[in-house]
Amino acid sequence: MSRIASVLLPMPLPEAFDYAEPEGMELQVGDQVAAPLGPRLLRGVVTALREAAGGNRPLKLIEAKLDDPPLPPGTLEFIQWAARYSVDSPGSPLAIATRGARAPKARPEKVMELTGAAPARMTPARARVLEAAIKPLSPADLARAARVSSSVVKGLVDDGALVMRLIVPEVRYPEPDLALAGHPLNASQAAAAEALKAMVREGGFNVALLDGVTGSGKTEVYLEAAAEALARDPAAQVLVLLPEIALTQAVIARFESRFGARPGEWHSDVAPPMRRRVWEAVATGGCRIVVGARSALFLPFTRLALIVVDEEHDSSYKQDEGFIYQARDLAVARGKIEDAAVVLASATPSLESLRNAETGRYRWLKLSSRHGVARLPDISLIDLRETPPETGRWLSPPLVQAMVETFAAGEQTLLFLNRRGYAPLVLCKACGERMTSPDTDSWLVEHRYTGRLVCHLTGFSMPKPDKCPHCGARDSLTSIGPGVERVEEEARGLFPQARISVFSSDTVWDAKEARRLVASMADGEIDILVATQAAAKGHNFPKLTLVGVVDADLGLRGGDLRAAERTYQLLAQATGRAGRKDRPGRALLQTYAPEHAVMQALKAQDRDAFVEAEMAEREIMKLPPFGRLGAIVVSGPDPQALEAFVRTMAEAAPNAEGVEVYGPADAPLGLVRGRRRKRFLVRADRTVDLSAYLATWRARVRPPGAIRVSIDVDPYSFL
Ligand code: ADP
Q1: Same domain for 214 and 285?
Q2: Looking at ligand 1, which residue's alpha carbon is closest to its atom 25?
Q3: Centroid of ligand 1 to alpha carbon of 312 (angstroms)
Q4: Burial of 107 (0-12, 13-18, 19+ CB in 10 A)
C-alpha cells in the first residue's frame, strides 16, 4: 500500500499539498522533503501521512527526503496555530521557522596539519612553522604565526611534513554548568526567584509577569528560573526573547557568565551559516539556551521548558509586515503548546499583561526597588511654553544648565529623541513645497551624514537637491524640526570639548557597532549620547546621571489606541537609564503639555495611577485588553476599482453578536508606492473568536488581481 504525504511549503498557499511517498522512503511527520511545485523544487515539511485509498488521481512524487533534522511536533502545531490566529496561510510562519534550515552551510576552510613525517631539511624558519602547526591554521595564518613567507610553508608541504585539509569548523554549544552560582539575591529578588523556580518545578504551562522597576534585577531573577529549568531536565531548553538586537549582547554575556556556556544567538544580524548551525543545534537538542529576537520563537525546539520575554511591553515584538504577529502573545501560545513556563518581564508591562495579572490568569511578581544603593531618578518637567529654546534650537535653558552641571561633574548625559536623521521635513521657503516620497503620503527625512533625503516608510532616497524641484528656487530648501543628528549638532556647539555620539539605527549599522557604542558608553568614553529608542532600552550605563527627553510629546501626537501607553513606557524606560549605580540620577522632560496625564504620571513616578486611568478608559470603550481589535487594509493602484471592492467587502461582512465593523475609511497613510489604501476596523468582545470571524469574512470575497487584502489581528499601527 502506498502512502500520501501532506507537505506544507514555505509559501503563502492556503494549505498543505498532497504528494505520493515513493517506495521505501519511510517518511515521518516533521520530515523535511524536496517536493516539486510547477517547474520548481521546494523545501517542504511533512505535516500528515495517510494510506492512499485506491482510485485517487495520480499525485506527484516527493523528490527526496532531506538529510536535515525534522521539525518537532510542537513546532508544527505552533506554526498551524500561529497561522490560524493571524488569519494567514501556514506557509508564512513555516517560512520563518525553516529560514535557518534553508540558510547555506558553512563552507569548508583550508587548514594545515602536521603529517608526523620529518622534513628532509630543517632550518630555524621551518622549525617555527612546525611548532606553530600544532594548532590547525590556514596557510596564511600559519606563515604569519611563524613569521615566515608562504614559500616556507609550501616547501614543507612539498617535503611531506605538512598536508592541507578542508575542514568545516565545528561550533558546539557546551552544556551549561549548573554547579555555578548566581549573584546572591536581595530579599525581594529571592522571593521572586523562588516563585519562578516553583512554577518551573511544577511543570506544565504557566505564565508569570515579572514586574520590576528598571534596575531591580529582573535579569538576575529570570536567570535563576533558567537554572531551575535546565537542572530539572537534562534535555530542557530555554528561550529568551529581546526586542532589540542591541540588547542581545549584554544578556548573552550574563548567561555566559552564569552558566559558563555561550547561548545560541538568533537575530537577523547573525550570518546565515551560523544561523543554520543554531537551527540544527536547536532541532537536535544540542543547544539548550537561545537568546534572540522575535523570530527565535519559531525555532524547532525539541523540549522547550521556559520562555522569557524580556521588555515584554515593547512594540518591536509586533511584526506588522509579511507574516503579521505579536511575539509576546505567540510566546504564550507556544508555551501552552509546549507545556512550558513563560515569564514576561518589564518595568512598564503592557496593559494586556497587567490585566491578565490582575485577573489572576498570570502570576504577578513585583520588584519595587532598585538593587543595592541605586535609586530611581528624580523626574521633572520642563514647560517649553515658559522656558523655550532659542529659535532654531531644541534644548531649553534648564536642560542646557543641567547638562553643564553633569559635564562638570564628569558624568554622562543621554539626550533622547525618537527621531532619526537631521530633520523630519524639508520645505521650500520660496513656494512652500514639502519634499515628499514619490507616490507615497510620507515626508522625506533629511540625513546630513549622507547628504540624502530618505523616506523611512518605503526606503526611497535621493541626494538633497540644491534647488526646489517644484519652483526651481536656489538654496531655498529649509530643514524643519529636529532629528538626532540636529540635536547632536546643537550639543557640539554648546559643548565643544565634550565627547558626543549618536545612537540610532542609521548610525549604528550592525550588532558589532552597537556593542562597541554601548561598551564605550558603559566605560565612560562618551560624555553626551544622543539617541533614539535603540539606546533607550535595557542598557546599564553606570556613569549616566542625566536623561534629557528632547520632545516628550512626540509619541502622543499619533493619537492611536496605544499612544499614551507607549509614550509612558518609552519615557519611563528612557528616564530609567539614569542613576543605575551609586550616583543619583535625574531626568528632564521637555513638553508643551505638562498637564497631560502621561507627563504627570511620569513626574510623580506613579505608574499605577496612569495604568488605572488608562484601563478605565479602555474598559468604557471596550478596547483591548477589554475587547479585541482587528484591522483590514485593502490596497490597490486604481482608486475606482478599490472603492468598488471595499464596498463589496463591506456588504460581505458577517453579522455576529459582539462584533462592530467600522469603515471602510481612507487610511491615514492613504498612498504608499502608488497604491491607495482603505481600512476597516473590527472591534469584538473578548468572548468572540475574532480570527475565525475575519477568516470567514475574507473567504466571502475574492479580491481582483491588483487588490491586496491584509489582515492584522490586534493591530499596533493604525496608519
Ligand atoms: P533589570 O533587568 O531589572 O533592569 P538587571 O538585572 O539588569 O535589572 O540589574 C541591574 C544591575 O544591577 C545589573 O548591573 C545587575 O548586574 C545588578 N544586580 C542586580 N541584582 C544584583 C544582585 N543580586 N547582585 C549583584 N548585582 C546585581
Answers
A1: yes
A2: 183
A3: 18
A4: exposed
- Concatenated DSSP letters of 124-140: HHHHHHHHHTTS-B-HH
- CB 258 within 8 Å of CB 223: yes
Q: Which helix (H) or strand (E) holds 661?
A: strand 659-672
Contacts of 15 (CB under 8 A, 6+ apart): 89, 90
| Mutation choice for ligand 1 from 219, 221, 369, 544, CB with most ligand atoms inside 8 A | 219
Q: What is the pTM assigned to this prediction?
A: 0.87
Report how many domains make up the chain: 6
**403 and 337 in one domain?**
no
Count CB-CB contacts under 10 A for residue 398: 16
Is residue 230 domain-shared with residue 343, that is, in the same domain? Answer: yes
Atom of ligand 1 nearest to the CA of 189: 23
* Alpha carbon distance 59, 79 (integer Å): 25
* Residue 1 confidence (pLDDT) above 70: no
At 485, which helix (H) or strand (E)?
helix 484-494
Atom of ligand 1 nearest to the CA of 347: 3
Q: Are 502 and 528 in contact (CB under 8 A)?
A: no
Co-location of 386 and 473 in the same domain? no
- What is the pLDDT, as a whole number, of residue 513? 82
pLDDT digits (tens, 9 = 90+) for 556-604: 876 688 888 988 998 888 888 877 677 788 999 999 999 998 899 999 9
Boundary-marking domain end, from 547, 582, 615: 615
Residue ID of nearest Cα to ligand 1 atom 23:
185
Helix ranges (H only) for 49-186 are 73-86, 91-97, 99-102, 124-132, 139-145, 150-158
∠ CA 293-301-335, nearest 5°, is: 75
Block residue for cell numbers 518589564: 346
Q: Could you tell me the residue range of the domain that residue 89 belongs to?
A: 3-97
Please tell me the distance from the alpha carbon of residue 14 to that of residue 5, in angstroms, as a whole number: 16
CA distance 342 to 363: 10
Verify that 239 and 282 share a domain, yes or no: yes
Q: Give 197: exposed, middle or buried? Use CB within 10 Å, 0-12, 13-18, 19+.
A: buried
Is 647 domain-assigned?
yes
Residue 214 pLDDT: 83
Judge if 362 and 511 occupy the same domain: no
**Looking at residue 651, which CATH number applies to its domain?**
3.30.70.600
Residue 514 and residue 450 share a domain: no
Is 717 touching ligand 1 by the criterion CB < 6 Å?
A: no
- What CA–CA distance (Å, rounded) separates 673 from 516? 36
Whichever domain contains 425, its CATH number is: 2.20.28
Cα distance between residue 215 and residue 223, in whole Å: 15
Alpha-carbon distance 408 to 547, whole Å?
A: 16
C-alpha distances (whole Å) from 35 to each of 22, 51, 63, 243 are 12, 19, 5, 35
